[in-house]
Amino acid sequence: MSKRIGLVVAAGVAALLAAAPARAVDVWDAGHFGDDNAGSLNSLAHGSVQTHDLDQAGGANDVDWMVVPTLARHSYEARLSSANQEYDWGACPDCAQFERVSSTGTILTDDVGTVNEGSIESYVRSVRWIATGNLTSEYIRVTGDNTVTENSNDVYTVRFFDTTYSIPRWNSSGTQTTVFLITNLTQQSVSVTVHFYSASGTLITSSTVTIPQNGQSILSTASIPALAGQSGHAHVVHTAGYGGLSGKAVALEPSTGFTFDTAKIPISQ
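Predicted structure:
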């Protein structure tokens, strides 16, 4: 190719780039179907970490949709951090938003601050919920600020967790009973449900309690008639977020005075 032809080609490419609408640098925006609506194929799994931007270079306010597949009787948290813009703290509808939504955009769960500072909360935001079924039709949605023009420097990071805890063993048969000790480590009141399964995986019954901030719940299997003569394992689901609870199950044997501790185990990352 001659030098003159090379210059002409280069000039033509430059002209096409200048004429084309600017695109956000967020790699998910440019993926198959993009991620600007419920057609997004960007799916989060336990332990996922993704960094996005809210670039409005295309002209409209940026909206990022992320699919969150869920299992029945599990709990989840999506956590937003490393942001350099202000997210809605419940009184700013024009601020950037972080929400769990349906495929039609209906808000299912709004976010909360992981550290509550009053009228202005930290930029670390959290969406926490207990799944209602085996679903692939729910999303985490992040919407840019309506009052400013954001660019590729306006970034945030999303982390996604299955927050379900497992209790490998409980017993409420013979002379043994099991006591669940569960502590809330967060600054909010949280809902906690213990699902009791048989060893074969059949759900026997469930028990739900509300634990105040920094509070503790003590639940004995002896107080639940459906568990009489039964044993198995349990799942603990909640709205405290990943690492938001601590606790254990203690099996009591009155005839000997022995106790047997079983740790509450989170799903590892």
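Summary: Residues 1-24 have pLDDT under 50 and may be disordered.
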